From TrEMBL:
Provenance organism: Cyprinus carpio carpio
Mode of membrane association: Peripheral membrane protein
GAE domain ranges (all copies): 665-778
Name of the molecule in the record: AP-1 complex subunit gamma
Sorted UniProt keywords: Cytoplasmic vesicle, Golgi apparatus, Membrane, Protein transport, Transport
Gene Ontology CC terms, in alphabetical order: AP-1 adaptor complex
Predominant subcellular localization, coarse grouping: membrane
Length: 785
């Protein structure tokens, strides 16, 4: 059989291939020849064939059929064969394949070989791909080589011990005696690997960490010798003595000094020395300074040392290298909470990074800028951040707008400044703000009573300039609907009032309804604003006409609003002024339980799950009646729900006070359900002055000690009325009221009035479901009327 081609010739031949297919054909041809040689047990050229196979493996072609040949080369007595065999084992084998266990005995023999280079090959292979089984079997040999006087073997044995500890952590104590003597070695390679081994042991075992803390003075002495030593061509890198060893020692000192006062005190001086004496003109010095900064920040260092570290990061921000600037911004972002004042000194440099062309630097600078905002610098920082928001890429606008909202809410010096800032954000990046920005700004405006005229005038001007920013348009529509009379009357004192007529305001809102830029939500805001202006403007006929047009809109939401508003004009016109009054001040109520408030178009829906601290409710009769008809139409039964912590007997009266100051005629109650500690009673009440309103109150009582959670009450009633479901927590009592109008009861007075009641509730781990039927005969209905 002819001699196979050499590796060099194979590489030259493959490089001449012009296409992928041509290269693949060459590889397949050569692999076939290598397989034939393996089958013939050709020992002469096995090493050459495995070397070519490894090159093909590096190109991405399969070479698994050469695994056993690697084992044969390892078992050979020739060093050249062993070198290729071990290299092939590291590339082609791993612990997931059982073949690697066959080489355990060969590695053990080679670890005891008389030639240091053969021992070095075995240590490299074990440290690269040794499995946990191999590590357990060979840990003793590795530990012996750690104690040898040969520095070449000691550094390789230390790295192999790191791999053994990672695979079998319980063998850590085996290497403890040998590790203590490694730091006294003068060879930098042994020192480097011993520091790596110590770091691994300290990270994996708290006991080892406390044990090795007594080595801090020795590590400090080694680091000081590296700094003070003169030029050494063997270890010099860009004028710095062995920076790799310095970085490793600094990292180990950071681990040893974290949370320990004595160790931190011992290394304070050397850290200050490294920070002040290291040259920063080359990247090597910057790497050492960065590790020094991380060590200072992690240990219990002195305040002056921490300021020095932050000043080093500040100098990094002026570096031309983008990577160094990014690292500095990231490190400052981590330390800004603990050393806020020190980082504040570099605020101008950080703000300048917002103008950087690199996207990652710009994002880190934005995050750090928001972290630096406080009550003292809020105006200046917001000015810079608003300028950044105006010029930044769309990818940044959402995060920047959210950050400005949060900072303005937390540190706003005045309500006018707060409103101006939010409006500036909506004008600049309105399409990128969060979904809750609109209700939050509406709440802010509502609570700023003295700023109503100024706000509505500013928003009206913004609306004339640009209607493409939908959140801005929604807030402006809401404010014009609420405070349109202030806009027309020109009562603004903060700036020069503008002269606006009612028709001009309505023209703008109608333009929003027909604009292609308006979303369905925006159109809903605009229609609601026009409806509210019916009680503030005199152009009533025009408003009725606009509302009636959208009663046949293809947008279901818009159509429903228009139909309900038409019903207010036609059937409940006497309630319209009270229903469309200005929204009261919206205040978030702090409760022990979770509270969720949703505000849309000036309507507030609050669900409070705690019943202990409820605010007192006092509403005029007109407002309560208006609330009852928000659903609109003759065939709807509104609900008023509240919870009463004490005095269940009088709670019904307090509940009905929501409807006004009414005197009631009490009709005997009916018990609908009384099981499992839950009592549900129906009581019937009628208003003497107003016979058109009748009330059925459902009183649910929890007689057990535990709370009933996830309580859901539903009712299936005749088609002429409806009853939405309700859900809450029952501690002791809860009241739910159905309000019936006369014409609804007229429709069922000659029939049986039936309610089917499904009730769900959870008590501890027990979940209950009840289906109960209650019949009210027509006599009840007639009597109620």
């Amino acid at each position: 059989m002819p001699a196979p081609i050499r590796l060099r010739e194979l590489i030259r031949t493959i490089r001449t291939a012009r296409t992928q297919a041509e290269e693949r054909e060459m590889i397949q041809k050569e692999c076939a020849a290598i397989r034939s040689s393996f089958r013939e047990e050709d020992n002469t050229y096995r090493c050459r064939n495995v070397a070519k196979l490894l090159y093909m493996h590096m190109l991405g072609y399969p070479a698994h059929f050469g695994q056993l040949e690697c084992l044969k080369l390892i078992a050979s007595q020739k060093f050249t064969d062993k070198r290729i065999g071990y290299l092939g084992a590291m590339l082609l084998l791993d612990e997931r394949q059982d073949v690697h266990l066959l080489m355990t005995n060969c590695i053990k023999n080679d670890l005891n070989h008389s030639t240091q280079y053969v021992q070095g090959l075995a240590l490299c292979t074990l440290g690269c791909m040794g499995s946990s089984e191999m590590c357990r079997d060979l840990a003793g040999e590795v530990e012996k080589l750690l104690k040898t006087s040969n520095s070449y073997l000691r550094k390789k044995a230390a790295l192999c011990a790191v791999h053994v500890i990672r695979k079998v952590p319980e063998l850590m104590e085996m290497f403890l005696p040998a590790t203590k003597n490694l730091l006294s070695e003068k060879n930098h390679g042994v020192l480097h690997t011993s520091v790596v081994l110590l770091t691994e042991m300290c990270e994996r075992s708290p006991d080892m960490l406390s044990h090795f803390r007594k080595l801090v003075p020795q590590l400090v002495r080694i680091l000081k010798n590296l700094i003070m030593s003169g030029y050494s061509p063997e270890h010099d890198v860009s004028g710095i003595s062995d920076p790799f060893l310095q970085v490793r020692i600094l990292r180990l000192l950071r681990i040893l000094g974290k949370g320990d006062d004595d160790s931190s005190e011992a290394m304070n001086d050397i850290l200050a020395q490294v920070a002040t004496n290291t040259e920063t003109s080359k990247n090597v010095g910057n790497a050492i300074l960065y590790e020094t900064v991380l060590t200072i920040m992690d240990i219990k260092s002195e305040s002056g040392l921490r300021v020095l570290a932050i000043n080093i990061l500040g100098r990094f921000l002026l570096n031309n290298d983008k990577n160094i600037r990014y690292v500095a911004l990231t490190s400052l972002l981590k330390t800004v909470q603990t050393d806020h004042n020190a980082v504040q000194r570099h605020r101008s440099t950080i703000v300048d990074c917002l103008k950087d062309l690199d996207v990652s630097i710009k994002r880190r600078a934005m995050e750090l800028s928001f972290a630096l905002v406080n009550g003292n610098n809020i105006r200046g920082m917001m000015k810079e951040l608003l300028y950044f928001l105006d010029s930044c890429d769309p990818d940044f606008k959402a995060d920047c707008a959210s950050g400005i909202f949060l900072a303005a809410e937390k540190y706003a010096p005045s309500k006018r400044w707060h409103i101006d800032t939010i409006m500036r954000v909506l004008t600049t990046a309105g399409s990128y703000v969060r979904d809750d920005s609109v209700p939050n700004l509406i709440q802010l405006i509502t609570n700023s009573v003295e700023m109503h005229a100024y706000t509505v005038q500013r928003l009206y001007k913004a609306l004339l300039d640009d209607i493409s920013q939908q959140p801005l348009v929604q807030v402006a529509s809401w404010c014009i609907g609420e405070y349109g009379d202030l806009l027309v009357s020109g009562q603004c004192e903060e700036e020069e009032p503008i002269q606006v007529s009612e028709d001009e305001v309505l023209d703008v809102l109608e333009g929003l309804l027909v604009s292609n830029l308006s979303t369905p939500v925006t159109r809903g805001y605009s229609l609601t604003a026009i409806m509210k202006l019916s009680t503030r403007f005199s152009s009533l006929n025009r408003i009725k006409k606009v509302v009636s047009i959208y009663g046949s809109s293809i947008d279901v939401e818009l159509q429903q609003r228009a139909v309900e508003y038409n019903a207010l004009f036609k059937k409940y016109d006497h309630m319209r002024p009270a229903l469309l009054e200005r929204m009261p001040i919206m205040e978030k109520t702090a409760t022990n339980g979770p509270s969720e408030t949703v505000q849309t178009n000036g309507e507030t829906d609050s669900t409070i799950l705690d019943t202990k601290h409820l605010p007192s409710i006092s509403q005029p009769a007109s407002q309560a009646n208006d609330l009852l008809d928000l659903l609109g139409g003759n065939d709807v039964v509104p609900i008023i729900q509240t919870t009463v912590p004490t005095k269940p007997a009088s709670a019904g009266g307090e509940l009905l006070d929501l409807l006004g100051d009414l005197s009631l005629t009490v009709i005997p109650p009916m018990t609908a359900y009384n099981k499992n500690g839950l009592i549900i009673e129906f009581t019937f009440e009628r208003s003497n002055p107003n016979p058109n309103i009748a009330v059925i109150t459902i009183h649910a009582t929890n007689s057990t000690e535990a709370d009933m959670t996830e309580f859901v009450f539903q009712a299936a009633v005749p088609k002429v009325c409806s009853f939405p479901s309700c859900s809450t927590v029952i501690r002791k009592h809860i009241f739910i009221s159905l309000i019936f109008l006369k014409e609804q009861l007229e429709a069922i007075k000659h029939r049986h009035f039936k309610i089917r009641v499904p009730v769900y509730f959870r008590q501890g781990l027990l979940k209950s479901y009840i289906m109960h039927k209650i019949f009210f005969f027509s006599g009840y209905c007639w009597h109620l009327i």
